[in-house]
Amino acid sequence: MARKETYTQLIKTEAKHLGFLSCGISKADFLEEEAPRLEEWLHNNMHGEMHYMENHFDKRLDPRKLVEGSKSVISLLLNYFPAETQKDSNAPKISKYAYGTDYHFVIKDKLKRLLQFMQEEIGEVGGRAFVDSAPVLDKAWAAKSGLGWIGKNSNLLSKQVGSFFFIAELIVDIELEYDMPVTDHCGSCTACIDACPTEAITEPYVVNGSKCISYFTIELKDQIPNEFSGKLDNWMFGCDVCQDVCPWNRFSKPHNEPLFSPHPELLSMTKKDWEEITQEVFSGIFKKSAVKRTKFSGLKRNLEFLKAGKPLNSN
């Protein structure tokens, strides 16, 4: 028992040392509560064109099918809340998480270092690192591990730090001390539901992914449906509306991860700069950014859609 306690403390201390906001641990087991919810969400086609969501259904719900011999899921949060945002209030907007270096690279490196530390300090530890790139229900695991609760906007929320953070996991084959979930603190608040420009939050705790602005501007490869013209609230990559209005985000503090600092030109670009952006400028500013996912052609499509729809805060 004492050994489990010692190992758990070691891991949590090192996670803090590596810059993670918090670390919670839960038993690698079947996600019983999430199974019917995920099934219904997929059945109602709320994933739109994100067909990868249909794959590996059993692995999404049971980490033991994903990582052989797994016993514990270590969930980690990494803050990305920026000290400054885009200066031109009329400029098309980019989600705060995409200001700096692509989080996949930043977090993967930290997870590798944490696993290496565990192997050095504990001995033989087998496991895999996951950053939003495999069939892992990261919000469910983070909630199980006591790092927050899943809010009405389906994001993980924390009383201490809000929701502007990334979630990642190490699934490992050793037993550790497990944390308890926390209670839901959304109460009667409906700020996120009321503010969603496309009414993607169809009911509390249910988001229709195929109506979400992030889906339209990042995931959707076809043309954005005309019915959403003028409803994208000037977002050209991602959307932060449901987080910006969440009362718990008044506790967000700027991150201290240098790699998440934006490209020097990014925040000062004007509406005109964005409308006239070239492939060269795009490649320079977003060289290591998550925005590369949408490619130059995708960003241009989004910008043109915003322009045609005369977004809410255009001149």
From TrEMBL:
E.C. code: 1.17.99.6
Entries under NCBIfam families matching the protein: tRNA epoxyqueuosine(34) reductase QueG (TIGR00276)
Residue intervals of the 4Fe-4S ferredoxin-type domain: 174-206
PROSITE patterns, A to Z: 4FE4S_FER_1, 4FE4S_FER_2
InterPro entries in alphabetical order: 4Fe4S_Fe-S-bd, 4Fe4S_Fe_S_CS, QueG, QueG_DUF1730
Keyword Nucleotidyltransferase tagged: no
Main localization (coarse): cytoplasm
Quaternary structure (record): Monomer.
Binding residues annotated for cob(II)alamin, in chain numbering: R60, D132, N153, L156, I167, S214, C239, D240
Catalyzed reactions: epoxyqueuosine(34) in tRNA + AH2 = queuosine(34) in tRNA + A + H2O
Residues given in the record as [4Fe-4S] cluster 1 binding sites: C186, C189, C192, C246
Cofactor names: cob(II)alamin; [4Fe-4S] cluster
GO MF: epoxyqueuosine reductase activity
Designated name of the protein: Epoxyqueuosine reductase
